[in-house]
């Protein structure tokens, strides 16, 4: 009896879909498509010079990654600042990560300490912004940032917990970029230094408290109250500059 093998997309089409997905993902991350902006398949297909099917496949992948929403009328859009998912992800991270960090501080060995120090050094030495990469922070800094936070938790030695961290980190990447853009006054370098110092000093209570505050500030930058406050500060600064 002959068994039917499921067909797979032609290599050319699959490669094209990968390229379009990567281009759209980078464009959203750079801020080329503003929060809440529609992602019209027809327009994107025309701009990319590809078929509608290729663009739709790329958009569905972006939905799965949390970088796009599928609307009730079958359209697509960039998530909005006010989307409740960002606060829910932040709540989940504030619940899980401090617990894992405590475990990591308790169980981590000297090799873990060395990795934490190296990861922090890399993060501190990596430029956060580059003109050619737009208004949001660079891909290099984003990766150094991820590695530092993950390394802090790796001392726990619990793979399922680290996999949970990986999923939450990916789901919140867009919110992180928006948050940094909307709260430029934050001293991220100092926040990360405090995290490193508390972890290596084996001060679990302090490290957990610093981490909770760090995560809370990121989520707060996306709330309406914070946005309004930032707009007022920007207007005030503009007034000061114009008068001085």
From TrEMBL:
Composition bias (Polar residues) maps to 231-244
Q: Which residues cross the membrane?
A: none
HTH gntR-type domain residues are 14-81
Query: Which keywords are on file for this protein?
Result: DNA-binding, Transcription, Transcription regulation
List the residue ranges of the region (Disordered): 223-244
Q: Which Gene3D superfamilies does the protein's record reference?
A: GntR ligand-binding domain-like (1.20.120.530), Winged helix-like DNA-binding domain superfamily/Winged helix DNA-binding domain (1.10.10.10)
Keyword Coiled coil annotated: no
Show the PROSITE patterns listed in the entry: HTH_GNTR (PS50949)
A Pfam family hit: GntR
Protein name (record): GntR family transcriptional regulator
User: Which species is this record about?
Assistant: Streptomyces griseoaurantiacus
């Amino acid at each position: 009896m002959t068994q039917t093998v499921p067909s797979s997309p032609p290599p050319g089409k699959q490669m094209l879909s990968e390229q379009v997905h990567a281009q759209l993902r980078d464009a959203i991350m750079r801020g080329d498509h503003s929060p809440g902006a529609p992602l019209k398949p027809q327009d994107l297909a025309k701009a990319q010079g590809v078929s509608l099917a290729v663009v739709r496949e790329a958009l569905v992948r972006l939905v799965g990654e949390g970088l796009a929403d599928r609307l009730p009328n079958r359209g697509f859009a960039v998530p909005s600042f006010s989307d409740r998912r960002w606060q829910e992800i932040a709540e989940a991270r504030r619940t899980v990560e401090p617990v894992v960090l405590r475990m990591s501080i308790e169980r981590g060995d000297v090799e873990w300490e060395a990795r934490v120090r190296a990861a922090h050094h890399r993060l501190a030495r990596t430029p956060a912004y580059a003109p050619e990469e737009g208004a949001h922070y660079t891909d290099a800094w984003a990766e150094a940032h991820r590695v530092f936070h993950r390394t802090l938790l790796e001392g726990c030695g619990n793979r399922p917990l680290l996999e949970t961290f990986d999923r939450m980190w990916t789901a919140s990447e867009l919110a992180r970029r928006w948050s940094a853009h909307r709260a430029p006054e934050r001293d991220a370098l100092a926040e990360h230094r405090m995290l490193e110092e508390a972890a290596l000093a084996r001060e679990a209570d302090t490290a957990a408290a610093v981490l909770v505050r760090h995560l809370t500030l990121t989520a707060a930058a996306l709330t309406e109250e914070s946005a309004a406050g930032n707009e007022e500060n920007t207007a005030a600064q503009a007034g000061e500059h114009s008068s001085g």
